[in-house]
Amino acid sequence: MEKFSGKIWVLGDDIDTDIIIPTEYLALKTVKDMAPYAFSPLRPELAAQIQEGDIIVAGKNFGCGSSREQAPEIIKTLGIKCVIAKSFARIFFRNSINNGLLLIENDKLRDVVNEGDEITVTINESIEHNGSQYPITSLPQNLVDIINAGGLVKAMRKLNGLD
Question: Which of 60, 62, 102, 144 could pair with 85 as two cysteines, CB 3.0-4.6 Å apart?
Answer without folding.
Answer: 62
